[in-house]
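job 3f2a | input accepted
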Amino acid sequence: MSSSMPNNHGTAVAGIIGALRNNPDEDIPEIMKGIAGIAGGENNDVNNLDTGVELYSGGIFYNKKFSTISDAAQAIFEGAFESIDPNTKMGFGLHLQNHSWGSSVIGTNSQIELDLVEIKLLEEVVESAWRNHCVLIASRGNRGRKNSPLEYPACFADELVISVGASGVDGKYKNQNNGDAFQESGSNWWASSKENVDIIAPGVTELILTTVFIDQPEPKPFLNYPCIPIPAVNTQNSKYQCFNGTSAAAPHVTGTASLMYSKHNVLATPPAPNNLTTEDIEAILEKTAHNRAHPNDPTYYDEENGWGLIDAGEAVKLIDYPKYYVKHSDINTAPTVTLVQSNLTVNLTQEINGLDAGTYIADLYKYEWNYSNNVLNPGEEIIDWWPVHAGTYKGVSANTNINGEPYMAITPSVNIGGTTASVNVVTYAWWVKEQGSVLGQGEVVNEWVLDQSSTSPNDLRYMYSIHIENITLSSLKSESIKEDVLLYPNPTNDILNIYFPTSLSNPEIEIYNLEGKLIYSERNIQPDQQNVSIEIAPFSNGVYLFVLKDKDNRITKRFIKQ
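job 3f2a | predicted structure (562 res):
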């Protein structure tokens, strides 16, 4: 069974994501309605250019507190896929899904066994949606402290779901001391943590005002405690109330992801080269987040804060095509196929793709790709890259003890700050000829054995994304500032000194290696500060990318550590 708050829960979530802005109150037209959703459209947009996100309700509770996993699985599947039969009216082909609910495995041994079967079903449906490039964002739960229980779908494999924890009034992981001070039940709840929390977002009543359904039957809204984040709004009429928990945090991320997707897709104006995948959205959300528990260490991930507090503005800016965009590798690149060795005796340690465990005679084939994304438009450069697991199908290793575990050797050569990106990929597949260990004496099989998710070498491929900036579209101010930014000495072996003008607003410094890994940042620069010195003696020798940015500018330069 899955539990969630009944009734207004979905309406409150929806308001955070998509409530319209600049929409007048029916009774007092001079006053705008109480809240604006993160991805809500412009009510007064006469040209219909900013309609905002479309919201679909996949309600699985319907005035009840519990629902079955199978109900949730069906809702996820219908949301993620379009129906091949228009007469069925099933399937919506959604780009993103918000899941402000969770299911835990608890109870007696028999109940746990039953729950595990249902959780496996849910995982299979979630993976299918992910493979279809439907982005799933889920709340991690509100039962944290030291032993946060596993809650699904948030706790499935990291690549399948963007898992969201809650932050308090200080932008750090929600604990008993940093939020919900005026909630009737007190502030002593903790956000769940561990198990691949990716990011945190606001989750306390001091920060969140949202919509409620005032015409519902009993029971009345569960959001019935005082609401003071925006005193100017009359909340006594029950149209708007406070909201909290990771159920409130998740839609902040979903709303931001919706903005990102609307900016960067093949139907946008101008059209982007491809839609965004789960990995694209997650990578950019994580690289722009602020871990306020460790503000000077951008590489710091912890199990409570994840990569930190979401920064919606910065995330959207980094996919604002054509200034920034994400380009996918060509998944249709043909591999080089080599027969490594024939008639090897192999051992299947378990059933794989319908073949029983046992001894077989098989041929080993090597599959190798050389992907290249070197052709960029004039003025563009690569600022990052990451694998896209949803578009990747792996083979197995060359080990004759075959357990079905996926294997793929990946050797990237991505020139961060440059224009070349290439990846060499190697994996293997087994052509199983017959049972037994003596050729010609066993039952004929003639089946491919790869990992558990593939049945043919034609499925095998690798997919990755490169994050690109068009530096020719920088503002004149940025270009002028770039000329004034000095790095010295360059090359250097111990200290890198930076001089920059004071015209930047709350500037930040980041340093990346040429693999795109962020290895240093400085975010506590004073408003009138013009000089920063960085100790780079611990850095490995090589070329690094220096980034100086504020809310309007991003200046990049290179330096050499020797």
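job 3f2a | The radius of gyration is 26 Å.
job 3f2a | closed
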